[in-house]
Design brief:
The complex is a heterodimer of chains A (461) and B (481).
Chain A lengths: L2 H7 L7 H9 L9 E17 L2 E19 L2 E7 L4 H17 L12 H4 L10 H4 L3 H14 L4 E17 L4 E16 L4 E8 L7 H14 L9 E7 L1 H15 L2 H5 L4 H5 L11 E3 L21 E5 L2 E2 L6 H7 L19 E4 L6 H6 L3 E15 L4 E14 L2 E5 L3 E6 H6 L1 E4 L4 E3 L8 E4 L2 E11 L3
Parallel strand pairs in A: 7-12, 11-18
Antiparallel strand pairs in A: 1-2, 1-4, 2-3, 4-5, 5-6, 7-19, 8-9, 8-11, 9-10, 12-13, 13-14, 13-15, 15-19, 16-19, 17-18
Helix pairs in contact in A: 6-7
Chain B lengths: L1 H13 L4 E17 L2 E19 L2 E7 L4 H21 L13 E5 L11 H16 L4 E19 L4 E19 L2 E7 L6 E4 L3 H4 L7 H13 L7 E6 L1 H13 L4 H4 L29 E4 L20 E6 L2 E2 L6 H6 L9 E2 L8 E2 L4 E3 L6 H6 L3 E13 L5 E13 L2 E6 L3 E5 H6 L1 E4 L6 E10 L4 E9 L2 E8 L4
Parallel strand pairs in B: 4-6, 9-16
Antiparallel strand pairs in B: 1-2, 1-5, 2-3, 5-6, 6-7, 6-8, 9-23, 10-11, 10-15, 11-12, 13-14, 16-17, 17-18, 17-19, 19-23, 20-23, 21-22
Chain lengths: 461, 481
């Protein structure tokens, strides 16, 4: 038995390399295709969801997907199935082949990547067996501990454990396999007058300090009692890591990909090579960074390189795949998202740490606001990196370098790049975040002190 | 599938489940994107599997698998029971469900032309023709066309005797043009943004939309927006087209009236609601012209079905009547929590692998009177905004800021010059309170949005909204300060 087969047999991994190779092997040489690529993704997850200090939804599920991409000359199409038996794989391959034949020549298709050019991506294996085999009872025990830690308030959130495996095989010789696990806790504490927030995540469940996260949520809620109105306007702010993570996630979504550059959507089209942020700011996509969770190859099997999209404040990206790299005249960075429509994607964004403690960041602000996290952020203007969203779960006035009275929530309308250009300090402690949607990727972020941040309206809570 | 699901039910009840349901789902989908003459994405996908939901010791458990054999059905059912037992260890409240008669039924979306039987070449040719037409307009960076097809068969059986077999078919298509100049990017879409117009039905929907005929105008508007002045920050009369009213209804009426949100069950993720249980029958949600229903029976909606995903028959419910809050969207569990007699049938799950949640079916703003021109006629000075572009709303669904692709000034009852980057902001009940006309049935249309996110693990749901253009007074546009 191979190591991954042993792990599958032990109930740890949802898919072995051998299973993926067996499923894909049957169709890699399908007649009529000039290139075949198969990505097999499998996961097993348990999500225990609580609200009103009760477990309200509790789910365990196994998922499986085989993505078959077929080229006929310069024509390309794909088909997906969630059954790995030979008949379903053959059906998916036939569907993709038939669709490719019905499609049109694509002069920009560079062909499937060749193993002789890209080699074999090393597996990162951000994988922890104890996390993979966590039981419903373990998750319920963790939630019970969270509820004890938030006694006196109404608690809501999730406790989640999952394992994920990805394999890629192609008729051009690409062979990749990687796996990761993830433990996630979130907790909102509501004391009837204010809410507070805590969260933690890691590839290893043992590193998820869920009781501390719950206490943080409760403390924030207690300190938030008696919030008052404050006028919207432009303020100096200290953004805690959950708020920073959301901003840089949306910055990545708005413009870190090479397709967005080619289509004029990204700030990188106009600003590449220019100073766009404070020189202390470096934002990279780096799946190998401590705290990042993901796999070491992209969805065409190319090793994922670290890309500093903003390096010491200078716009230097974007991330690319073989198609967009050829159009831009460079080499792929290994960031194909699996969709030519969406293009390459930076899914493991890291804002590198600075040298300030949280107290020093707060102490640097004479008059301003402390933001715990944001809610319902959306992009208003991609080239401008203009976002809007709300604060929630702990917004406070800062007076003379100290956290002062809680205030009601604001709507912000702010260019992320302009905020990064006015950064006055970066925290030295990094926190890792699971993605808000889906299971792929992660974000690593510190706290930030920002000189100018624009709040355009407020609400009554 | 029926045998497998019944095997799961038997295993669950034999292991102590006081209630169990099992849902099998088989999905076929096709997605096509054409950019100019080139096919950018062409994907066929299928997904089949089943999920088992149980109540044991008064708590919920759920497990799901794509493996379709009877041993797996039993294993998954026992896992669901194990999960429920674990839930019960942390809980003090017991799950209670309002009664629902057992249903044995088969139902399908009416379809004239099976969209999966239409040759791919024909679909590509249509979209490419429209996209190429758009790219002929000087200044257009690219033109794009998309088509999305879905066929989903769902089997539902419950320990109470329901046995339901439903098939829904959804078809969506649209075009958009993008123009870029000096860091400014403008986009126009037809007939709606975010991959177009979606409806329940077959390829006849595509054939009725006249994509090619509307491509040149769409592209010309994208280019013209680059030169248009910015929409001003002011307080003015606002007229919204039906597409934007769809988004307004979705975010500021649909979500706040979901009873799980009101009861705090979504507090940590999507948020709660400014609406309280005690507001029913009292809260002034909008002006007397505002009448809004939750209606899973309306023809053509993405939220049209015969039974929801816990086997409750589709219904039409008045959420807002003459401006007063008169209803919530409920499930069997949440209906019990507020002492209601029956769920109004809004529980749905994405695919086979998810636990059903309260999801909007079709949330409809009922038509008022008059044409679109009548809406404009009473406006000396105002702004007309069209086609949703962006949205953001707070965790209680009160403070919102929404953006559209395009706007025009209104002067003395007539459309004037074009404005770009239009946005408006407001507070939900104040905004709906300022509604002084909803256009009539001749302007009313059921729109579809296929990308409503909710829940953890995240689920994407397809929901419908019947709307007509509407007028609102004293609205803040631009960035209110």
């Amino acid at each position: 038995m191979s190591p991954s087969e042993q792990a599958v047999a032990a109930g740890e991994l949802p898919l072995s390399q051998d299973e993926a190779e067996h499923a894909a092997g049957a169709i890699l040489d399908i007649a009529g295709a000039d290139g075949v690529e198969v990505v097999v993704a499998a996961s097993r997850s348990g999500v225990t969801r609580f609200a009103n200090s009760q477990i309200i939804q509790n789910t365990v599920r196994s998922e499986l997907r085989a993505y078959v991409r077929i080229a006929v000359g310069q024509k390309l199409a794909s088909a997906t199935t969630n059954q790995l038996d030979a008949a379903h794989m053959q059906k998916a391959a036939n569907q993709a082949l038939e669709a490719a034949r019905a499609s049109r020549e694509d002069p920009d298709f560079p062909g499937l990547p060749e193993a002789r050019e890209f080699g074999s991506a090393p597996a990162l294996m951000r994988y922890d067996a104890l996390t993979a085999v966590a039981t419903p009872a373990q998750r319920a025990d963790a939630v019970a501990a969270i509820l004890r830690a938030t006694e006196g308030a109404s608690a809501a959130g999730v406790f989640e454990t999952s394992s994920h495996a990805y394999a890629l095989l192609s008729s051009t010789g690409m062979r990749c396999y990687d796996a990761f696990t993830r433990g996630v806790m979130t907790c909102l504490a509501d004391n009837g007058d204010a809410t507070g927030w805590g969260e933690d995540s890691s590839h290893a469940l043992a590193d998820v300090d869920y009781e501390e996260g719950a206490r943080r949520a409760l403390d924030k809620a207690q300190e938030g009692r008696g919030a008052i109105d404050m006028d919207p306007g432009t303020y100096r702010v200290v953004l805690e890591p959950p708020a920073v993570a959301m901003l840089i996630d949306y910055l990545s979504y708005a413009g870190f990909g090479a397709k967005q550059v080619l289509e004029g959507e990204s700030f990188l089209e106009a600003l590449a090579g220019q100073q766009v942020a404070d020189p202390a700011v470096t934002i990279a996509d780096d799946v190998a960074y401590p705290g990042s969770v993901g796999i070491g190859f992209d969805f065409e099997g190319v090793p994922r390189r670290r890309v500093a999209v903003i390096d010491k404040g200078v716009a230097t990206g974007p991330v690319s795949d073989t198609r967009t790299a050829r159009k831009l005249g460079g080499a792929t960075t290994g960031h194909f998202s699996g969709s030519d429509e969406f293009g390459p994607y930076a899914g493991n964004v890291v804002l590198e740490a600075g040298d300030r403690s949280d107290e020093e960041l707060l102490g640097s602000v004479d008059d301003g606001l402390l933001v715990t996290r944001f809610h319902y952020v959306n992009v208003l203007d991609r080239p401008e990196t203009l976002l809007t969203g709300m604060t929630r779960d702990g917004t406070f006035r800062i007076r003379k370098g100290e956290r002062a009275e809680p205030v009601h929530n604001f709507r912000f309308t702010q260019s992320v790049l302009k905020a990064l250009a006015s950064v006055e300090g970066i925290g030295r402690d990094l926190r890792a975040f699971a993605p808000e949607f889906g299971s792929f990727g992660s974000t690593v972020a510190p706290s930030l002190a920002v000189g100018e941040f624009r709040f355009t309206s407020r609400t009554s809570h | 599938m029926d045998d497998l699901l019944n095997e799961a039910l038997d295993a669950a009840t034999a292991s102590g489940a006081s209630y169990a349901d099992a849902r099998g789902v088989d999905i076929d989908a096709e997605s096509l994107t054409v950019k100019g003459p080139r096919v950018e994405a062409l994907d066929r996908s299928s997904s089949v599997g089943f999920g088992v939901r149980v109540v044991v010791d008064g708590a919920w458990g759920f497990a799901a698998s794509p493996r379709l054999d009877r041993d797996e059905a039993s294993r998954v059912a026992l896992t669901a029971v194990e999960v429920a037992r674990a839930s019960a260890t942390a809980n003090t409240n017991l799950v209670e469900l309002v009664p629902e008669p057992a249903h044995r039924a088969t139902w399908s979306t009416p379809v004239d032309i099976d969209p999966f039987e239409v040759p791919t070449e024909k679909k590509v040719a249509l979209l490419a023709s429209a996209a190429e037409e758009m790219e002929k307009v000087p200044g257009v960076r690219f033109g794009r066309g998309s088509m999305d097809l879905l066929k989903q068969r769902t089997w539902f059986v419950s320990s109470e005797g329901s046995d339901i077999d439903q098939t829904i078919v959804h078809t969506g298509t649209g075009i958009d043009a993008v123009a870029v100049s000096e860091g400014d990017l403008q986009q126009r879409s037809f007939p709606g943004s975010f991959r177009g117009h979606f409806e329940a039905g077959g390829y006849e929907i595509v054939e009725g939309l006249e994509l090619v005929e509307n491509s040149q105008r769409t592209a010309e508007e994208a280019v013209a927006l680059l030169q248009a002045p910015e929409c001003p920050s002011t307080s003015t009369t606002l007229v919204l087209d039906g597409h934007q009213v769809m988004l307004q209804v979705h975010e500021s009426v649909g979500h706040p009236t979901e009873l799980d949100r009101i009861l705090g069950m979504e507090a940590a993720f999507a948020g709660t609601s400014f609406v309280g249980i005690g507001d029913l029958g009292h809260l002034r949600y909008g002006s007397e012209l505002v009448n809004i229903t939750s209606d899973a029976t309306v023809e053509g909606g993405l939220g049209t079905y015969a039974y929801d995903d816990e086997g409750v028959a589709a219904q039409r419910v008045n959420l807002v009547t003459d401006g007063i809050l008169t209803g919530f969207q409920t499930s069997r569990e949440t209906a019990a929590a507020i002492g209601a007699d029956r769920s109004n049938g809004t529980m749905r799950a994405e695919g086979w692998e998810n636990f059903a949640l309260i999801r909007m079916p079709n949330i409809n703003l009922l038509p008022g009177e008059g044409s679109f021109e009548d809406l404009l006629a009473d406006v000396d000075e105002g702004i007309y905004m069209a086609t949703n572009k962006s949205w953001s709303i707070d965790d209680k669904r009160k403070n919102f800021q929404f953006g559209c692709e395009i706007a025009w000034e209104i002067k003395n009852g007539r459309i004037g010059r074009m404005l770009k980057n239009p946005r408006y902001t407001g507070i939900t009940p104040v905004f709906w309170g300022s509604c002084d006309q909803v256009a009539g049935p001749e302007e009313w249309k059921v729109w579809g949005t296929p990308n409503c996110g909710k829940g953890q693990p995240g689920q994407t749901m397809r929901v419908g909204h019947g709307t007509s253009p509407a007028r609102f007074r004293n609205v803040s546009t631009g960035f209110a300060q």
